[in-house]
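Summary for the steering committee. The consortium agreed at its last meeting that each partner would contribute one worked example illustrating the joint modelling workflow. Our contribution is presented below. We chose a case with several input lines so that the handling of multiple components could be demonstrated. No manual editing was applied between input and output; the record is shown as generated.
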Amino acid sequence: MIGRTPPWILPLVGLIALVWIVPIVGLVVTSLRPISEVILGWWSLDEFTLTLDAWIVVWDKYPLAYAFWISCKIAIISTVIPMLLAPAAAYAFHFLKFRFRRLLLILIINAFVLPNQVVIIPLFRLWRDLGMIDNIWSVIIPFAGLSFAWAVFLVKNYLEDFPTELIEAAQIDACGPLARFFYIVLPNALTPIAAVGILQFMWTWNGLLLPVVFLRDELPLPALLARIQGVYDRNWDQVAVAAIITTIVPLIVFVVFQRFFTAGAQTRTGGKE
Amino acid sequence: MALAADIQGGPSGPPSDRPRTVGRRQLSDTQAAWLLLAPLLIFFGVSVVFPVIETIRLSFYDIRGLAPARFDGWGNYSTLFSDPNFLRSLRVTLVWAISATVFSVAIGWGLAMLCALDPRRTLVFRIMIFAAYGVSEAVSGFMWLGIYRPDYGLLNGILEGVGLSGLTQPWLGNPSTALGAVIVAYVWTQVGLPLMTCFASIQSIPKNLFEAAYIDGAKPASVMRHIIAPLSMPGVRVAIFINLLNSLKAFDLIFMLTGGGPVRSTETVGFFMYRESMLNFKLGYGAASTVILLIAVLVVSIPLILKRTADAR
Amino acid sequence: MTLRVPNAKTPLRGCAATLAAMICFGTPALALDGELVMINWLGGAQGEMMDKLQEDFEARNPGVTVRNVVPQAGGDARGGIRAVLMGGEQADLLVNTWPAFRAELIEAGLIVPLDEAYEANGWGEKLGESWRALSIVDGANYGLTYTFGDRSGIWYRTDTMEKAGIAPPETFEEFVGDFAALKDAGITPISVPAKVWAHAEWFESLLLRTAGADYMARLAAGEASWTDEEVKAALSKWKEMIEAGCCDDGNTMLALDWDISVDAALKTGDAAYVLMGMWLNTRAKQEYGETPGEDFDIVQFPAMGLGHDDESMVDAKEFNVLSSVENREAADAFMTYMLTADAAGIMAEYGLASPSSDVDPSIYDPVIQRSVDEVAGASKLQFVLGDLLPGDLGSEYRVALQRFLQDPSDETIDMVTGQLADVAERAY
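What follows is the complete predicted structure of the assembly.
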């Protein structure tokens, strides 16, 4: 809470959010009505029946529990890695001086331009030669590697505001660069780390392209549910179910992690401590 | 920056000049840096450097479908620059990327500032807007198709309902409205990101700055302008970076809504790359367009990065 | 669709079954065993159908397990299939519905000729001459067609016809003449979905009736030019139809994908006719809940009196055997199974027709029956042109037709055919 809140804030933001969520409401409605009713549009009111058919079909036909477990493994590991390594790198790039600092930074950040398709075929051959097809690490390694482009940038941007007097103080106490990182910078960088966590979790949880190519039986949730759609019959009611199931988890992660956004504000004061 | 203004450099000058205290075994900056970077570089090397080198190599070959690759030198590049479809896609991409980024960041930032004034009770709304970001592009495309449908679409239905039937049209079929329509749908999906990063930025502004301002009798609008706006810049910068570069890669939404049409008026470079690499399977040609995109982004980003890192310690 | 998980019980069942077979029937046939690997990109209802067929096959051949390699999807499945093949994945069978792709595979040496297998397994007895001809390239046969669809069928709702007081047309003159009656009844005569690919069907059907299958085959092979009179004649016929008021305005057509058009014709009745493949039958039954033959029906593309009225456009799916095949016996056995009446029965549940002569046509609903009869009675079969064209010519072709629809004039026809001829030169 920052001071007094004008009363018009809540209704204004609320209105925007309600308009914003209209398509998503449509998604939920599509999953609950028979396809023949929603085929012209989920808001059509000629006939209105609610049914759990699509939900039941998806539940019965697809081994959701196992895929959920695989999705968890992939997403959690692929998220923890950048959450640990990106701050380390950002710290190194921002606070330490070493050769190739700027060259490396340029390389890493510009990698963000790369579309996933560029990565697929060369990596597929590599994984096949190493016998790693259908091993979840074949997906985790590129997920982590590709994340650094934006994760390092994100953490570095937040670190630029970092009060240097804390670092100075640590140096006076004869803390080496590594100690300064672990004891001073890291605990105060919870906000960007949480942001990296939220985004990376969402992208790896929803990630479809890499798992579909590199995995066979060990399929995460979105890859599994991609088979619902045919070329000639889209099964939008079941697809809607799949979308809802898949999207809920990253939203939960968002709610949990965003509490860390205020963590840095307490310790950083404007003045000398 | 306002914050840095109260902080002087350390008592004896910038850190790297100061003598290391003897007696405690310490790493030099360089050693520490490489230690911190090593694991990342391994992941990065395998997943990024190796494919990029492959892509650059492929861009010099003429590959059609499954036929054996023929070395072609600069052939792909010269064809690209004389291909009206590629050149058109560059133009479309410029409009697309800039409008999508400007609108989504502006809206997200504005919303973040409003939400920051009451974080607890706006949580629900923030979740609702972030949900749009969490839904996959393909599914979003499906929902917006329903909205833009010429016959029973929601948009045309609303326009007719309020008496504006003159404005109804085939939004995705008219080459002059198609790009705009797709941009609106895309911005809808993307606002969640700037909202989150700017909000995070604002939340980490030290509280005593606000206390000081209120003690001085500042109104919320002025607080927004002088404290929140400048201090949320990290979040804004990150949002611009991520949204801009993601818009260059955007594909699924365009595919669902227009398939690159009508008459290719919504075909961005990202779509062009996909079409050439995956549909026509001219891998060399697609690779060349990727390399050009990479170079274009490098040209813009290198000066910016150099400038920002020049004054780091 | 149940996901396949390798089952450890199958080999055991296999041994038991073989033993039983040997005891009961004396001389055992070569017991099939091992794994059959299929590159299977079919999803949705067709994917379900293939799963059922695979399960049925496994039940009849207990030693065999079928494993699917599912390529990454995304619009056209060929990209994913190429990625799988280039990555060196081993597989035995491939489901293929693009003759152009088949040609590519042959050139790259990735599929093998099946002539010997035809002899050994007696497929020639079950598959008519014209079906075999569809998969022959340069004198050798590379595929086994297991299903086909009529692409010359125009779909309509029976009550729409009643509302306008017309009967399904037989000649082109009747067809165009009826437009006025339809428009008076407030119905758009034709819904043309020009967003991606489905508008090409109209051009191709017109070209088939005006120039014939032989010409189209030459055009697809790059031996005829897009600037020929035949192509322009077909486009002019379409211009005629548009001037007679057949369709929505250009931009609206460009906004419609095939599913919106078929909704208009078969669900809401806002339009009268739509030209679409047989999967519309499945959609109408499952998603609209309508009855084939009663609520809706198809009529073959009207006759134009130019000598090509008994030719039909078709699409088909075939199996190719990959050169990386390891279990050839099982692959051949599966293809033989696909031509049996049991397999056809499963396919009929999903609204798909089998070309096998073993099939009793009464298992099909009236709409499929009609399409099967038309195709069987056709003097020449022509595969859908769009799937015959190589790579970028295919996309350029569809965009060119979009430009034509935006402004259907003679100048546009000349410009568009000129552009296509240019792209074709580079493509072949």
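Chain A has two domains: 8-51, 62-267. Residues 8-51 of chain A form one domain.
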